[in-house]
Amino acid sequence: MKNRKHEPILFSYRDCDDFAAYLEEQARLGWHFKEIHMGLVFERGKPAEIRYRVEVFPKRREEDDGATWETKEYAAYCEAAGWKFVGSVRKFCIFEQMEGEAVPIVTDEERLANVVRAERGILATRWWQMLVVVFLLADDFPPLFPVTLILVLCILVQTISLVGWSRRWRRRLREGKGLRLASRGGTAWRVVKNTIFECLVYIWLCISIVGLISTAQIGWIGAGIWVMVLMVFGIFLIFSNWFRGSDTFSGVLMVICLLAIMAAWGLSMGEGLAELTGTANRPI
Questions:
Q1: Taking Cα atoms as reference points, which of 7, 18, 85, 90 lies closest to residue 42?
Q2: Is the pLDDT of residue 249 over 70?
Q3: Which of 93, 89, 61, 90 lies closest to 74, judged by CA?
Q4: pLDDT tens, 109-145?
Q5: Does the structure show a pLDDT above 50 at 50?
Q6: Span of the secretion signal (predicted)?
Q7: Can you tell me the distance from the alpha carbon of 182 to that of 170, in angstroms, rounded to the nearest whole number?
Q8: pLDDT, average across residues 45-74
Q9: CA 20 to 30 Å from 35, out of 96, 197, 204, 206?
Q10: Whole-number pLDDT of residue 190
Q11: Where are the domains of the chain?
Q12: Buried b / exposed e across 106-124, counting CB within 10 Å, b at 16+?
């Protein structure tokens, strides 16, 4: 019987309360959260009632894994309020309630503002990436355009959703209702909505590669390059969603994708031109 297990981090910043509830449920089953290392790490122990709190700390970056010095200062502040810092990844900070009474770390208004700011940062990065793709690569790589348009629509829907979500909760807070950061559709819907963008990017890459292969004269080396691009991108896709949480590294993935497409396209076209040149120079 194993005493340790790893679980994926399939939570967005709007799912902080779902995240905390998941950790509490695992504790009641005898699995106690220990750290974040290639996912959530749990160790087997006695079932216990442990209260967790997950907050978005705006001074962290998407690339952060461990506790930065700003995070350590924040952790000391939260410990004075009765919350022990137990882990962090991206802008998530996880706290466990200490013995005795604990007070809220931030107000609901501040909590909502932190989440909206973090989500806006992700969407701003995605808009910038897609605009670069549309204006720089659409003419040279026609097969990219239809799926790129789908990705743009996906980001637009996410932007509208964030605006509506934030306005709805601001109105509810003005009415004196509490903030609840959780998904309405349960676990399945949370997983879908938090991974759909990366999955669409992967489909975008696959269609792009198929289209470019069909329009370029390439040999086995060129085809092998495209397969390697798909494999590498797939590995990064799994890493981003399983080990660090959804929305992570989407910018890095997009840049790697574009560089890989341009490099593979250049090598493939070079090989095709070499074959054509050899054919042209071959004696009749």
A1: 7
A2: no
A3: 93
A4: 999 999 999 999 988 988 887 777 667 665 666 656 6
A5: yes
A6: none
A7: 15
A8: 88
A9: 197
A10: 63
A11: 4-97, 108-277
A12: bebeebbbbbbebbebbbe
Burial of 251 (0-12, 13-18, 19+ CB in 10 A): middle
Residue whose C-alpha is closest to residue 12's, from 246, 258, 225, 278: 246
Chain centre distance of CA 54: 17
Q: Does the model's pTM come out above 0.70?
A: yes
Burial (CB count <10 Å: 0-12, 13-18, 19+), residue 281 = exposed
Question: In this structure, what are the phi and psi dihedrals at residue 208, rounded to the nearest 5 degrees?
Answer: -60, -45
Give me the amino acid identity at 238.
I
Distance CA 176, CA 245 (A): 32
Helix (H, G, I), strand (E, B) or coil at 115: helix
The structure tokens 């909760």 sit at: 169
